[in-house]
Amino acid sequence: MFFRVFLHFIRSLSATAVDFLPVMVHPLPVFKRYMGNTHQKKAIFGQCRGLPCVAPLLTTVEEAPRGISARVWGHFPKWLNGSLLRIGPGKFEFGKDKYNHWFDGMALLHQFRMAKGTVTYRSKFLQSDTYKANSAKNRIVMSEFGTLAIPDPCKNVFERFMSRFELPGKAAAMTDNTNVNYVRYKGDYYLCTETNFMNKVDIETLEKTEKVDWSKFIAVNGATAHPHYDPDGTAYNMGNSFGPFGFSYKVIRVPPEKVDLEETIHGAQVICSIAPTEKGKPSYYHSFGMTRNYIIFIEQPLKMNLWKIATSKIRGKAFSDGISWEPQCNTRFHVVDKHTGQLLPGRYYSKPFVAFHHINAFEDQGCVIIDLCCQDNGRILEVYQLQNLRKAGEELDQVYNSAGRSFPRRFVLPLNVSLNAPEGDNLSPLSYTSASAVKQADGTIWCSHENLHQEDLEKEGGIEFPQIYYGQFSGKKYRFFYGCGFRHLVGDSLIKVDVVNKTLKVWREDGFYPSEPVFVPVPGTNEEDGGVILSVVITPNQNESNFLLVLDAKNFEELGRAEVPVQMPYGFHGTFIPI
């Protein structure tokens, strides 16, 4: 009986493969064409020597659920009242099972609460179903991005073998280890990653209150951890849908208010579906851009091989094995009217690059201007294997020097392109940027970027984790953004970038590694840099304390720090919630 069931499954799988293969080899001459751009630099790699080992920043820590009073040095502004919430991986093994990738660790929530110059800290592991199942079995039960769960050793041989055939898209097989970011929908805060699950959280106690499944509300299999918001609270996000009718990218809109106090993302809608340029290999993406009127989605040549992903468990591979950098393909920009859901007809292309984080986007003179942190080498996901991050000596130097760097770039997408526009013309009317958009013979528009930096940023190792004064300048013309410099595999400095003058201000302290900067405005200010920067700064040195840093956003000088004698791992994203 079991053997007949197994044969039926294999026949079904083979039939699926036959149907799927023509999709995989579908020719794409426009997307495959590479147009060289001689004045733009190739991928920039470092040549560092003697990097210090940061393995202690990427190891399991204990949670600190009871509030710990921090030792405050310097000055915390009296108006700075609220909580800095951060999240990232904090547990990297269960029993003898160990995670392979930085993205896989169990979510650890951090809270720095500031009130009238005092600071308290607490942390808790997210009590996700994945965390509880792993803890109960004392092994890795649920697969993560870079780690395949081993079948239950208590099952018999046949049961362990058949467990390999559970498809990764099945809800029961998806992790709810939401360790990437805090997001807000209808006034509530959720922890999210890129699967279909989010965990609603009490921001005071850091306790999970509800698990929410996107697929129960709209036809998506996941959504990004970086939604955008209109001033009225309407949220927009990007998700994926894959099933018997193929794969598509989805633009999602969530209404700003609740009809019922108990609802979560009720009323969410898919307002636009975008077909991938290459059906069997859609792009992996981490974020998207938004202006007052448009959604900008970038289809980049960091590809998800759907066949490899669908068969990953059968082949004994993790999800990450199905993602590959394919620089023979160009990057494509899609623009969607967020009010009507209409996909604009313009076909915009650029040379191959990868962008994990968008800085900002805005409209001017009939164009969309989009600023991104870009890498010319898309193999960074491979670099962030834990075995690489924990290396020391020459091996660590080799890993760092093989990784591409991320730099801020500006692209211009003209929206109203005349059919009669001459071939070879630069369609950008903007005098303040050298970014160009040139019409090609086939009607496509080739976009060349402007670098928003000078050579001094190359010495800082590039920049990532970009942040702006979101409440006032998201979707608008702006001047400043903040991020982490990367002279190491994790951020080792904080940087303020002036995108008009292309100048930098840098904060650094040797042996310490700051997190993503969060801008907090002075109450009532309209000044773009009228406020402070918050960052959690950690060190692998056991004789030093980690601390919450406060910088004056204007001059980038330290105002104060709050030291906490608690070990903290290097994390991902966070937000400030005023009180």
Q: What count of helical segments does DSSP give?
A: 10
Report the sheet with the most strands, covering strand number, pairing sense and barrel closure. 6 strands, antiparallel
Shape call: globular
Structural Rg: 24 Å
Question: Which spans have pLDDT < 50 for at least 5 consecutive residues?
Answer: 1-42, 156-165
β-strand percent reads 35-45%
How many structurally independent domains? Answer: 1
* DSSP strand tally: 38
Tell me the structural class.
Answer: mainly beta
What is the averaged pLDDT score? Answer: 90
End-to-end distance, in Å?
Answer: 63 Å
**Share of helix, binned:** 10-25%
Protein name: Carotenoid-cleaving dioxygenase, mitochondrial
GO molecular function: beta,beta-carotene-9',10'-cleaving oxygenase activity; metal ion binding
Enzyme class: oxidoreductase
Cofactor: Fe(2+)
3D structure, described in words:
By secondary structure, the chain is mainly beta. The protein has one domain (47-576). Helix content is 13%, strand content 35%. It contains 10 helices and 38 strands. The termini are far apart. Mean pLDDT is 90; it is low at 1-42 and 156-165.
Brief synopsis:
It is built from ten helices and 38 strands.
Topology:
Elements: H1 2-24, H2 29-32, E1 68-69, E2 71-74, E3 82-91, E4 93-94, E5 97-98, E6 106-115, E7 118-125, H3 129-137, H4 157-162, E8 181-185, E9 188-192, E10 197-201, E11 208-213, E12 222-223, E13 228-229, E14 235-243, E15 246-254, E16 269-274, E17 289-290, E18 294-299, E19 302-304, H5 306-310, E20 323-325, E21 331-337, E22 348-350, E23 354-364, E24 367-375, H6 380-383, H7 386-389, H8 393-402, E25 407-414, E26 436-439, E27 445-448, E28 450-451, H9 455-459, E29 463-467, H10 470-473, E30 480-485, E31 493-498, E32 503-507, E33 513-514, E34 518-521, E35 531-538, E36 546-552, E37 558-564, E38 573-578
Parallel strand pairs: 22-27
Antiparallel strand pairs: 1-7, 2-37, 3-6, 3-38, 4-5, 6-7, 8-9, 9-10, 10-11, 12-14, 13-14, 14-15, 15-16, 17-18, 18-21, 19-20, 21-22, 23-24, 24-25, 25-28, 26-27, 29-30, 30-31, 31-32, 33-35, 34-35, 35-36, 36-37
